Amino acid sequence: MSILLSNISKKFGTFTALDNINLEIPEGELVALLGPSGCGKTTLLRIIAGLESTDQGRVLISGQDRTDHDVSQRGIGFVFQHYALFRHMTVFENVAFGLRVKPRRERPNNDFITKKVHALLELVQLDWLHDRYPDQLSGGQRQRIALARALAVEPSVLLLDEPFGALDASVRKDLRQWLRNLHHDLNVTSIFVTHDQEEAMEVASQVVVLNHGRIEQQGSPGDIYDHPANAFVSRFIGHTNIFDLEEHDADWLQTAGLPTANWQGKIAHVRPHDIVIEKSTSHSDAFVTLKDWQHLGSLIRIELVKSGSHGSAASVYAEMPNDQFRRLHLKKGDKVDLRIRHAHWFH
Amino acid sequence: MNAMTQPVSPAKLVERQPLALQDADWVRWSLIAIAVSFISLFICLPLGLVIFKAFSKGVAAYWAALSEPDALAAIKLTVLTALVTVPLNTVFGVAAAWAITRFEFKGKSLLTTLIDLPFSVSPVISGLIFVLVFGAEGWVGDWLIERDIKIIFAIPGIMLATLFITFPFVARQLIPLMQEMGNQEEEAALSLGASGWKTFWAVTVPNIKWALLYGVLLCNARAMGEFGAVSVVSGHIRGLTNTLPLHVEVNYNEYNIVGAFAGASILAALAVVTLILKTALEWRQANR
What we know:
The structure holds two protein chains of two kinds.
Chain A: E1 3-12, E2 15-25, E3 30-34, H1 41-49, E4 56-61, E5 64-65, E6 76-79, H2 91-100, H3 110-123, H4 139-151, E7 157-161, H5 169-186, E8 189-194, H6 197-203, E9 206-211, E10 214-219, H7 221-226, H8 231-236, E11 241-244, H9 250-255, E12 267-270, E13 275-279, E14 288-296, E15 299-307, E16 313-321, H10 322-327, E17 335-340, E18 344-346
Parallel strand pairs in A: 3-8, 3-9, 6-7, 7-8
Antiparallel strand pairs in A: 1-2, 1-4, 4-5, 9-10, 11-12, 12-18, 13-17, 14-15, 14-17, 15-16
Helix pairs in contact in A: 2-3, 2-4, 3-4
Chain B: H1 10-16, H2 25-54, H3 59-67, H4 69-102, H5 108-120, H6 123-134, H7 141-146, H8 155-166, H9 168-181, H10 184-191, H11 196-225, H12 228-234, H13 244-253, H14 257-286
Helix pairs in contact in B: 2-14, 3-14, 4-8, 4-9, 4-11, 4-13, 6-8, 6-12, 8-11, 8-12, 9-11, 10-11, 11-14, 13-14
């Protein structure tokens, strides 16, 4: 179901957690609320769920105003960061809980519950654990049980708070892929909160970037990466080199190939892969030195040092594919030429 | 419940201690000797003496002392007091712990401090407070006399004083536990469509039940054994307002040694049973 948030504001004492949030989430999307810690993303998720009240603003789920509905009446499924499985119940009973607490006339019979719970446990590929207790499961297993439990009540919206935050890196990678596939199969509108931009880009179909309780940008992962709306988004999504023209000399950027004609601001953000480097030809005016490089799997991150006009040195990072870098036969300390292919301009 | 968390035996603990942390033999043995002699002198000996004195004139005299009407009335009143105050304080304690750990409100720290008040005030003062409020000369004394309601020197006074004295036990057991657990499981239950009432019984109670039982046990022990506050408000009317501890005192003051110690033996037995149950519950909590 679609979700519409209008003018949502929330304060905790004097701290403004959310400041006039307007957001529309179409049906069937998998949306990431992305931002640094303290940006209000979890508060926003809890407000959609009804676990937190708003100071002002309305929450509409599939067109109906649910602002004054209790969490138990919103038809949402919530997966908590630390899973919040009922520790005194088996995995089976955890998943069955939502069905068992339905009012008597809506409550399915036992056979139906048994069938449904096993089907859900199979969906998360953990049916073999049905008689275990939560403290006998690994983090990834708990996460999937928590998801199965939330899905049992057939929520119209699935909300996940830092779903992979407490997991090992390798488990996290698997679960991301798995969550995206699951969403593809179930097609239930889902929102998850994360502070990890890579995770947001990899899993979500829409990314909402938040900072200081405001929405900085909303769009597809590609959109946000290629067309950051402001300096914060550009810095937060992926690596970037920042050149402040009040500190750097503009000539240098011109030499590096940035056309000055269409400068629209005084701060240039340049992605590392938009910097091309070549071994310096002896007669060119080379002023960039290769300092070091790191292997990032298929890519190489190259650390360059540019000596400024006043003798100050600044680091510039470039990235290029492994084999391409090898072909350049560069050593530490080599002088290099560099060309900037593209920059984002901000004020 | 699960076999993975076996209690570590004391022998293993000692084995694992690094050499540097071990004291010389004579230090260890003298510390053990001091501890053991202290316990025997101040705990085992008096306890044994209570039993010995109670049976000093034979089993028949012991039974006679316990089955005389005043003694029976004291036992009955003590049990009645516990039956009324313990359930009430269980409800109050859970409610207070719930309010303190689940809600943010003004005066929360004041409430937390007030819960501890009965522990920090001398029981005699607690008793006197009730006399000052409900006694013939008290704030509402005239109002009560007009309506012929007796609180002080009557059973309601004993109940009130006991209620006041035993209030902290349940709440104090629950607050740290509920703070540590957080409320995510309850939020999860609510998000799955459970009502608040259902959430409380299906999620909260199972999680706090051992701590709750422990608090109830301590509350019960104190409710049955309370002397100071009850002594002030009871008036020591034989067969009517004497609880077991008061009954012991009255008999002792009258040099009825068997009567006093027979009553004391019941209280001592209660203490021992409480300790055994307490240990069992602690073990249970640690091995959950």
